[in-house]
Design goal:
The structure holds 2 protein chains of 2 kinds. Chain A has strands at residues 4-7, 10-13, 19-25, 31-37, 43-50, 53-57, 64-70, 73-78, 87-94, 106-108, 112-116. By secondary structure, chain A is mainly β. In chain A, strands 2, 4, 5, 6, 9, 10 and 11 form a 7-stranded mixed sheet that branches. In chain A, strands 1-3-8-7 form a 4-stranded antiparallel sheet, with no helix packed on it. Chain A contains no helices and 11 strands. Chain B is 0% helix and 58% strand. In chain B, the strands form 2 sheets. In chain B, strands 2, 4, 5, 9, 10 and 11 form a 6-stranded mixed sheet that branches. Chain B has a 5-stranded antiparallel sheet with strand order 1-3-8-7-6, with no helix packed on it. The chains are: A mainly beta, B mainly beta. At the A-B interface, strand 5 and strand 10 of A face strand 4, strand 5, strand 9 and strand 10 of B.
């Protein structure tokens, strides 16, 4: 009955490989997000999807491609992995998106720890 | 640069003491949120305070917001060892499009 789940929890891979991280939420939320948290714990938004539609793309290299097959899922595919991609990636979801003019509470998944060797 | 910046970056206190963390931000906001992150875990929402509110309480948490100074504080009273975590403030942009997180305050509560 996990609200926001991510798989895998850990991912260790070689430079140049392509990998995917999956995210699912069972909260009935309309909006989902991907964040990257670096080694210094800075959390930066990468993408936001609202009802399967891309809303935010925060200057992320196009090696990163999010895909939302339905509003409960937002997957992240990364091509040609680089050393600097090593980080913890968090998926999150929220109920509304700017309908009340502000950003509602976000619910985070447990994170995927990516290590690129 | 980060929209929200926490101060201090790290805080170590004894169980039972109060912990105060501050957050400053740069642009106008609709709301400010505080999140907690335990080591190796995702962020958990603690409290949301809207721009027209000045103070909010939730259990042992007290949050203040001063929009004239563009700052907020999170007070945890009677801290417990289980409060050991990183605490992040997050602000939404005026368009309500997204949250921007600060760098966090790492709180350690010693038993």
């Amino acid at each position: 009955d996990t609200a926001v789940s991510q798989t895998p929890k850990y991912l260790v891979t070689q430079m140049g490989n392509d990998k995917s991280i999956k995210c699912e939420q069972n909260l009935g939320h309309d909006t989902m997000y991907w964040y990257k948290q670096d080694s210094k714990k800075f959390l930066k938004i990468m993408f936001s999807y609202n009802n399967k539609e891309l809303i935010i793309n925060e200057t992320v290299p196009n090696r990163f491609s999010p895909k939302s097959p339905d509003k409960a899922h937002l997957n992240l595919h990364i091509n040609s992995l680089e050393l600097g991609d090593s980080a913890v990636y968090f998926c999150a979801s929220s109920h509304t998106f700017g309908l009340a003019g502000d950003q509602e509470t976000q619910y985070f998944g447990p994170g995927t720890r990516l290590l690129v060797l | 640069s980060q929209q929200g910046e926490e101060d201090p970056q790290a805080l170590s206190i004894q169980e039972g003491e109060n912990a105060t963390m501050n957050c400053s931000y740069k642009t106008s906001i609709n709301n400010l949120q505080w999140y907690r992150q335990n080591s190796g875990r995702g962020l958990v929402h603690l409290i949301l305070i809207r721009s027209n509110e000045r103070e909010k309480h939730s259990g042992r948490l007290r949050v203040t917001l001063d929009t004239s100074k563009k700052s907020s504080s999170l007070l945890i009273t009677a801290s417990r060892a289980a409060d050991t975590a990183s605490y992040f403030c997050a602000t939404d942009d005026n368009a309500g499009n997204m949250l921007t997180f600060g760098g966090g305050t790492r709180l350690m509560v010693k038993p």
